[in-house]
Amino acid sequence: VGYAGGLTGDPDYGHIGDHTEVVQIDYDTTRISYTDLLEIFWNSHDSAAWQGARQYLRAVFYQDERQQSLALASLRAAQGRTDEPVRTRVAPVRSFTLAEDYHQKYLLKGYTELAREMTRIYPRKQDFVDSTAVTRLNGYAGGYGSREQLGRDIDRLGLGPRGRRFLENLVRGRDPVNALQYI
Amino acid sequence: MNSKNLNTASVDVPPMDAAMPPDFQTATFGLG
Lengths: 183, 32
What we know:
The complex is a heterodimer of chains A (183) and B (32). Helix content of chain A is 42%, strand content 13%. Chain A has 183 residues and is of the alpha+beta class. Chain A is globular and about 50 Å long. The N and C termini of chain A lie far apart (39 Å). The relative contact order of chain B is 0.15. Helix content of chain B is 16%, strand content 25%. Strand 3 (58-62) of chain A pairs antiparallel with strand 1 (24-31) of chain B.
């Protein structure tokens, strides 16, 4: 996560200037397309909601002309699905500044045990931020991912026995049907 | 000893601050 879209130099949390808080993803185009990501984006927020401060814009920040064209097409498609005005923006990314460490993988850091295990594997902060395994764990910590998906992931995340048990219980515990087994 | 080499989770791809693999691209979203 970081700050993007603005023109002011060296943004940080205390001096964000005209930038917006963003999530930036480096993705494998052989596995998922930009159009797929746009679809997830449009399905995961209310595009008619009023936009407040620039710090919290809902927007697609495009990197190049190809992304701009696809993003604008997705905006038109979103407008076609609703009678309300779409207020989500499409804008140039201009720059990206990585946010401070304490903002990175924030949800995972709420689970000290899991975060500690991953910090042992990735003592360098940059490696921790870049790690696909850490990102995936952050998703599970945020309530995403199914038990079936975890079954496929669990051996590849680098967790020790305690971390594995904790994560399995975490994901299992939020499944209301399965939680009945624990009563 | 480099613990990362011993323990890197197998789901990981090369760190993005190294040369990004050719099939990778970047996307940026503001989520409100």
